[in-house]
Design brief:
There is one protein chain. It is built from 22 helices and 8 strands. The protein is α/β, with parallel strands linked by helices and 408 residues long. The protein has 3 domains: 3-114, Alpha-helical ferredoxin (Fumarate Reductase Iron-sulfur Protein, Chain B, domain 2); 127-274, Rossmann fold; 277-404, Rossmann fold, CATH 3.40.50. It is globular. The model has no long low-confidence stretch (mean pLDDT 91).
């Protein structure tokens, strides 16, 4: 059967609200039947904690689907409140894949019951269709002025974007946040790669990694973007992608495996630790005064990519001259921005962030670094509103400043 026939049948099924699960989806949903109703997950669910317990949490999802998995829409009010932090699965005694189920449910709702998709998220999807990113980009003039001012303030030089070409070793993927909002993160990534003589380039016409799109529910668009991205860089003979975003790293890595692309995806921390080495990094990143630093562990990095990457980040920070690394209790607690909750329900998201700010306040650190632009933006907003006397920096920006700046 050809693609046109399959698309035609899919449209008819959608119009008639007939739900068809793939063997993979059936397998994932069947995992929910393992739920023992022990409620252990509720003790670690950040949304359950801040909503006076009215949110049924991961167990609520399991309960709804165990009654009739085909009536997935009944869980719509639950799945869009999930941050996808992954703590539920990590603590679950039977490893029930709640985060994976949440994503699959959102995709079913998007196709079968689009009326249940939050309007705020539809706006983000429109941005991707129009601009290629989930946020509307600045005008060239506004972007240039903003970037110049920011780099001057933190003491980093401005460099041109090197195009990805045949012979390039690494495709550097900036991500939507670094391209449209936290502009210094994109520049810092370039500077760090250049400091260690990495042969890299930025793919022409790159677009969103697909994670926000998939979280909204449009898995077909996410697959299409990812397939096109991997095909484009493979045509140039490039076989590795490096990104500074935790969400992009987890999503592109999963997509590369799912699509069988043969592309190796790593967070910049992974690449530096495994290819450059801590000793070389510490010798190069030797600028700046004494500072007590704590690490925020992004959920997508620690739980979706792997805790070994967090261990890499800690090893790097501990090795840097004049950096006093402070272990932070609750470092892996969600900041509230994940799962698009920040855009769907900013009040609940802010309540979760407030708990994270309490953790940060108790750490005694003068600076907290986060290996994720989204977490950095979210926590920074909270720190500013609460007027805390602690700095927040993206991990890559902090490292670039230790390499290039005389004052940090």
């Amino acid at each position: 059967m050809g693609k046109k026939e399959i698309d035609h049948i899919s449209r008819i099924l959608a119009e008639e609200k007939i739900v068809v699960f793939s063997p993979y989806e059936d397998e994932i949903y069947s995992e929910i039947e393992k739920c023992q109703n022990c409620s252990l997950c509720l003790a670690f669910c950040p949304v359950f904690e801040v909503t006076d317990k009215f949110y049924p949490g991961p167990r609520g999802i399991a309960d709804e689907l165990s009654r009739d998995v085909r009536e997935f829409w009944r869980a719509s009010n639950i799945v869009y409140m999930c941050t996808l932090c992954g703590q539920c699965q990590e603590k679950c005694p039977v490893n029930a894949p709640i985060p994976e189920v949440v994503v699959l449910l959102r995709s079913k709702i998007f196709v079968q019951r689009p009326d249940l998709v939050p309007e705020e998220l539809k706006t983000l999807l429109e941005n991707v269709s129009k601009y290629g990113y989930i946020f509307e980009p600045m005008s060239n003039e506004e972007r240039g002025e903003s970037l110049k001012g920011r780099l001057e303030m933190i003491g980093l030089p401005l460099t041109k974007d090197p195009p990805l070409e045949k012979g390039s070793k690494i495709a550097y993927f900036p991500g939507c946040q670094a391209e449209t909002r936290l502009l210094d993160v994109k520049e810092a990534g370039k500077l760090v790669l250049e400091a260690f003589n990495v042969n890299y380039g930025i793919p022409e016409g790159w677009k969103c990694c697909g994670l926000p799109i998939r979280l909204i529910g449009d898995s077909a668009m996410a697959d299409e973007l990812q397939r096109g991205f991997f095909e484009k860089i493979k045509e140039l003979g490039v076989r590795e992608v490096v990104t500074t975003c935790a969400g992009c790293a987890s999503e592109l890595r999963a997509a590369a495996k799912h699509l069988g692309s043969g592309i190796h995806v790593r967070h910049l921390i992974e690449f530096l630790f495994e290819e450059v080495g801590v000793d070389v990094i510490s010798r190069k990143a030797c600028n700046g005064g004494n500072v007590k630093v704590a690490l925020h562990e992004p959920c997508h990095l620690g739980r979706h990519v792997g805790r070994y990457v967090v261990a890499y980040a800690e090893r790097i920070l501990k090795a840097l001259p004049n950096v006093n690394y402070a272990g932070m209790k609750g470092a892996d607690e969600c900041c509230g921005a994940g799962g698009l909750l920040k855009f769907h329900d900013p009040t609940v998201s802010a309540a979760i962030r407030s708990r994270k700010l309490d953790v940060i306040s108790k750490s005694g650190a003068g600076l907290v670094v986060a290996p994720c632009p989204l977490c950095t933006v979210n926590i920074s907003e909270g720190v500013a509103r609460r007027k805390l006397s602690v700095g927040i920096d993206d991990f890559t920006v902090f490292l670039a400043k230790r390499i290039y700046s005389k004052e940090v």
